[in-house]
Design goal:
By secondary structure, the protein is of the alpha/beta class. Helices cover about 60% and strands about 15% of the residues. The chain has 10 helices and 5 strands, in the order E-H-E-H-H-H-E-H-E-H-H-H-H-E-H. It has a 5-stranded parallel β-sheet with strand order 2-3-1-4-5. Helix 4 (about 60-75) runs parallel beside helix 5 (about 90-100) and helix 6 (about 120-130) packs across helix 8 (about 140-155). The structure holds BIS(adenosine)-5'-tetraphosphate. BIS(adenosine)-5'-tetraphosphate binds near residues 33, 60, 124 and 146.
Length: about 190
């Protein structure tokens, strides 16, 4: 199984690259952002609670996203592998993911981080906010809050995977295809060593 964590700050291009990777490698895409927005659009209780936090650029509680991921792993027992996009976002989530995958005997193959500086992130998210309808993309203050949440709570997750010798980073600035090629080179080298 190939289990990839795609990592990076909000707007780094995780979702964009995931769409291309699932086509090429036949992996299941697990985006906690998309799962939460699905709950919001269905008007579930979980979605209503999550929306209050997401609209302010704050992370939703660990137990909520861990529960969603656990459910999705169980629902895709025959998958060739997964791309985790936007998860884990805290060290507690990373520890929980290791435990979930241990019970399935399918550990994380590696993490790939997309490196993008803050000015470019703000530019991309505001641009997307013009037509995405996402409240968390439309407001510069909320975007800065999301970047701060990333620096405080999510950036330490890189150290978790560095300690397991599973961390690689690439430049996330360039065309979508240039970045995709760099990600594929890493994935192909992991597959060749499996
Ligand atoms: P997410 O949905 O995960 O959103 P993201 O970080 O904004 O997106 P991403 O990095 O995927 O950017 P994208 O490719 O779309 O999270 C939203 C919220 O949900 C969080 O703030 C949090 O509240 C909550 N949440 C989600 N997961 C959670 C968790 N595990 N724990 C707790 N809370 C959680 O790219 C952005 C834009 O850049 C797009 O418009 C794209 O077209 C553009 N772009 C992409 N690549 C480009 C390139 N190379 N050049 C120029 N533009 C590019």
């Amino acid at each position: 199984m190939l289990n990839l964590v795609l990592f990076g700050p909000p707007g780094a291009g995780k979702g964009t690259q995931s769409q291309k990777l699932i086509e090429k490698y036949g992996l299941i895409h697990l985006s906690t952002g998309d799962l939460l927005r699905g709950e919001i659009s269905q008007g579930t209780e979980l979605g209503l609670e999550a929306k209050k936090l997401m609209d302010q650029g704050i992370l939703v509680p660990d137990e909520v996203v861990i529960g969603m991921i656990s459910h999705k792993l169980d629902a895709n027992k025959d998958a060739k592998g997964f791309i985790f996009d936007g998860f884990p976002r805290t060290v507690a989530q990373a520890e929980a993911l290791d435990r979930l995958l241990e019970s399935k005997n399918a550990p994380i193959s590696g993490m790939i981080a997309l490196e993008v500086h803050d000015k470019e992130l703000e530019y991309r998210l505001l641009l997307r906010g013009k037509d995405s309808g996402r409240p968390d993309d439309a407001n510069p203050e909320v975007i800065r809050k999301r970047i701060n949440e990333y620096n405080d709570k999510t950036a330490p997750v890189a150290g978790f995977y560095k300690n397991q010798d599973k961390f690689k980073s690439i430049n996330g600035i360039g065309t979508v295809d240039e970045i995709f090629d760099a990600v594929c080179r890493l994935l192909d080298s992991w597959l060749a060593n499996q």
